[in-house]
Amino acid sequence: MANLTLVQAINLALTQEMEADESVVLLGEDVGLNGGVFRVTEGLQQRFGEHRVVDTPLAESGIMGAAIGLAMNGIKSVPEIQFEGFLGPAYDQLVNHAARYRSRSRGAITVPMTVRVPVGGGIHAPELHSDSPEAIYAHTPGLKVVMPSSPYDAKGLLISAIRDPDPVLFFEPKRIYRAFREEVPEDEYTVPIGKAKIVEEGTDVTVVTWGAMTIQCINAMDSLPEDLSVELIDLRTIYPIDVETIVESVSKTGRCVVAHEAPLTAGLGAEISSLVQERCFLHLEAPVQRVTGFDTFMPYYKMELDYLPEAPRVAEAIAACAAY
Amino acid sequence: MPIKVAYQATIEYMQILDEQGGLDAKLARDTLTDDQVVMLYEHMSMCRRLDEIAFKLQRSGRLGTYPQNMGQEAIASVALAARPQDWMVPCYRENAALYLHGLPPEMILLHWMGDERGNQIPEGLNITPMSIPIGSHMLHAAGIGWAARIRGDDQVAFTFFGDGATSEGDFHEACNFAGVMHAPVVFICQNNQWAISTPRSKQTRSETFAQKGIAYGLKVRQVDGNDIFAIFRAAREAVADALKGQPTMIETLTYRLGDHTTADDARRYRDPAELEAARKRDPLIRTRKYLESKDLWSADQEEAMIERNKAQVDDIVARATNIEKPKTTDIFDAMFATIPPELARQRDTMQTNSLGQFPQQETLRRGATAHSPTQSPAHA
CB–CB of B140 and A104 under 8 A? Predict the structure, then answer.
């Protein structure tokens, strides 16, 4: 066991998968000698060579499209897109090609690719460096979408993603890249894609969240009265979403709060609200509450904490839902 | 300080077989054998026949929108320069090359009949499904070639696209990646002069399409795209270069004799005189003239071939037509290696609405009604 940050846990997962499987190849802008702008791939080019940790031209569509081609011809490609805001140019390749190849070729061609993308706000970054576009990709058939909230899960989920025979979009919440450390086993292990985690068990209100918001939710819970029992679910995988864990929890608590950084309208909170009302209708004691970013752009960093649903907003919503 | 020339380039144009069937024997040396020319002529003729029949099938409602390949059959020559292990990453106007590389022709019909099984490339064939949006597939070829280099595999990726595709950003990124990564890739721009209704002159101000490759360090060359000898020679040289880590771009000057697709009518935007002039440059006509001039082909052989092609095309159409309808469950089962539970539920119920799907909810409701309609069922 080692006490690692999320960045270190991801680096360890990449190292171990590259050791175990020589067909794993990393590519992206500045991922080589520089170790990536967040240093996630630090030391990997020195260790595995320029042919396996490849600095590419500055072209997101090119990175994504070439990574698709690599994956089609025997390489488990792990492209990095430097920030989620730069997924735009690569959107066509990811959504119209990576996601579709297996289906449109009826299984003849597959794309075992893991796209690593730092995501979310809260680090005082420039424009288009702080968004949360996960719902867009959850809405795209053919992609698996993952977002860990802890070093342990990050390592296990990334290993699962790299071994997955289909394309996985692996979002890394940059706000908690180095926010805390956790014991992470040195041995290889996997955390299954498609399984949520019950972070804390409770009986009064279910809170569903993922990524860096998990920490805000924990902070919110710490500020609530002790006799309010909150069950916190960290989805870990955005698609395929673990409906069973949510439904089981809300059937028990009768109350549900969803918290995410992304804007409200047509966000993943809407999907979860629908699932809950469809399957827990007769258990519900209160309307499902959504605590999210606003339907505005993520502001520049002076006001980013006004936009983000920080712990106090989450706590307020949990208390209101419990009191309803 | 004198101003110096920082870079200077020239682009070679190559024609070996002219429109009258005359051959430049020097350039043709060590290219196609007589047998190969006969085979290519027969193959191109079969492709023309299949193309015409596909058009008729569309008009009679038995095939969806179909892009005719008519006039561009000489591209088949690329497949003779390719080795069996090489990849073909096509658009949709190089059917003749794909068939020769091993793709069962009925698969292309099946594709245009609205059936994904037309893309289910048989194992062992390194061909990707036809790419319908323009220009995005060349990046996959760059990645495929790059993968071969990483793995040390003796493979080259050929990718085909039209003149219009060179205006897409992905074309440039693909050339750039192939160049920087020393990927064994051959970019083949079939310049057929038209992108639906947009003529070549409005597509680019460049003198040639080939020169766009120069910017990315590709070896480039322009050839007569209706000349099986020139295409073969350029493609074979490109394979040799690709295996040394030098990608190539070949611009083939050809002409789209048909409409863009069966949903298009080129008479709305194209001068009939231009079409008439292009017909004279038809690859079939000049190849036949050449064969006849060498006494390698006769009227009897032509007649026999026409009969053979009819039978073969009938057979291809029958295979595409007589296949059983795909199962609706295929659309779910093809999504992932392992189907997620919720997707399996959609497949098994063919429903997305929730009522009636979750017995636990139904039981609760009935229980609530029976015992205490006013009480919250959750507490019943």
Answer: no
Residues 20-39 of chain A with CB under 8 A from chain B are 23, 25
Number of H helices, E strands in chain A: 12, 14
| Orientation of helix A268-279 relative to helix A243-253, angle to 10° | 60
Q: What is the DSSP annotation of A151-181?
A: HHHHHHHHHHHHH-SS-EEEEEEGGGSSS--
Instruction: Determine contact, residues B69/B45, Cβ cutoff 8 Å.
Output: no
Specify the number of domains making up chain B: 2
Which residues in chain A have Cβ-Cβ distances shorter than 8 Å to B141? Answer: 69
B128 vs A77: CB contact, 8 Å cut-off? no
The reply to whether A149 and A221 lie within a common domain is no
List per-block mean pLDDT (blocks of 10 residues) for chain B, which spans 380 residues. 95 98 97 98 98 98 97 98 98 98 98 98 98 96 98 98 98 98 98 97 97 98 98 98 98 98 96 97 98 98 98 98 97 98 96 86 62 42
- Interface contact A240-B365, CB threshold 8 A: no
A59 lies in the same domain as A137? yes
Sheet holding A256-263, edge to edge: A197-200, A230-234, A205-209, A256-263, A289-293
What CATH number is associated with residue A102? 3.40.50.970
* Secondary structure element (H or E) that encloses residue A258, with its range: strand A256-263
> What is the number of other CB atoms lying within 10 angstroms of the CB of residue B6?
5
Q: Chain A residue closest to B133 (CA)?
A: A96
* Chain B contact set for A75 (CB, 8 A): 147, 150-151
Q: Do B313 and B353 fall into the same domain? A: no
